[in-house]
Amino acid sequence: MPIGTNECTRIMRLKGLPYPRTCPVCKLGPCQRNEEVARLEAMPKPLDISNAKPIDGGLTQEKMLEIRDRILENRRRIDGCKQHTFRPFSAMLPQHMFGQKHECLNCGGKINGEDILTYVQGYIAAGGDPTDIVPDWNASVPDAGD
């Protein structure tokens, strides 16, 4: 079915009836129902590792559960932290590698460097002082025009 079409509009068209630009079923402009169903069906299903088996010497179920538990614990720490604080950039950057995680000094959660930058940008947008998060922020981050 072409994009932007839907079953109810198609039936009305086949019957020779005038059909509206808005879907008579959902009333939300061109009906997205068919596209939405296809998108939802194509989405990956939640990962269920309860019956997972190692493939060719891969991870065991116990190892997968251990990794999942570490991820959930890190997420719990990050989500529960009232305000993240990190080491100064001058201490992070010399050995920083793309995707490397850095530990929050308040909660112990680990966040990658790119997410720290996004967190600080949000903090600044909310009127906060970025040096509350990264002590040497102003000295180590070039202006956008540089």
Task: Explain what this protein looks like in three dimensions.
The protein has a two-stranded antiparallel sheet. The chain has six helices and two strands, in the order H-H-H-H-E-E-H-H. With about 150 residues, the protein is mainly α. The chain is flat, with a radius of gyration of 25 Å. The protein has three domains: about 5-40, no CATH class; about 45-80, no CATH class; about 80-145, no CATH class.
Structural topology:
Elements: H1 7-14, H2 33-42, H3 61-80, H4 89-92, E1 101-103, E2 110-112, H5 113-125, H6 137-140
Antiparallel strand pairs: 1-2
Widest sheet, order of strands? 1-2
Total domains: 3
End-to-end CA span: 50 Å
Helix percentage range: 40-55%
List unreliable stretches of 5+ residues: none
The SSE order reads HHHHEEHH
- β-strand amount: under 5%
Q: Return Rg in Å.
A: 25 Å
| Approximate shape | flat
**Overall mean pLDDT:** 74
- Tally the helices: 6
Instruction: Please count the beta strands (DSSP E, at least 2 residues each).
Output: 2
Q: Can you summarize the main beta sheet?
A: 2 strands, antiparallel
Structural class by SSE content: mainly alpha
What attributes characterize this protein structure?
40% helix, 146 residues, mainly alpha, 2 strands, two-stranded antiparallel ribbon
Brief account:
Helices cover 40% and strands 4% of the residues. The protein has 146 residues and is mostly helical.
